[in-house]
Design brief:
Bound molecules: guanosine-5'-monophosphate
Low-confidence stretches: none
Radius of gyration: 15 Å
Order of helices and strands: HEEEHEHE
Length: about 120
């Protein structure tokens, strides 16, 4: 069993979040520390800690997050201009909340690569 995170409290409405989309199995809300003019987090309501923990029978659930991203992009008018979807995994990936989430970034031209200032690991 994975450990509960702050996102479980958001799912249960115990702490506030600026929710932009919700259905039976997923939730999308504004990131509290936005890195772009639009920065949303799309999460499954089911707790899955990391990409490493995704099971074969959860592929539809994970795919659903991308369908939600597409719906939001169309509804919010940035589908044509473009956007970026990112899911960080563990320390090297920059994951800080251990409940999988798709970052949806939009509203500007996004730089690439996203890790320009990072140093390669030694050894
Ligand atoms: P990660 O670093 O795990 O890929 O992304 C976690 C994201 O969750 C971060 O971008 C961080 O700003 C966001 N975050 C952390 N705590 C909260 C919170 O309580 N509310 C909201 N809306 N976002 C949060």
């Amino acid at each position: 069993m994975t450990t509960e995170t702050i996102f479980d409290k958001i799912i249960r409405n115990e702490i506030p979040a600026d929710i932009v989309y919700e259905d039976d199995i997923s939730l999308a809300f504004k990131d509290v520390n936005p890195q772009a003019p639009v920065h949303l987090l799309i999460i499954p309501k089911k707790r899955i800690a990391t990409v490493n923990d995704i099971q074969e029978d959860e592929r539809e659930l994970v795919g659903h997050l991308f369908v939600v991203a597409r719906k939001i992009a169309v509804q919010h008018g940035f589908a044509k201009d473009g956007y970026r979807l990112v899911m960080n995994c563990n320390d090297d990936g920059g994951q800080s909340v251990y409940h999988i989430h798709l970052h949806l970034l939009a509203g500007q031209t996004l730089g690439w690569p996203p890790f320009a200032n990072a140093e390669p690991k030694q050894g």
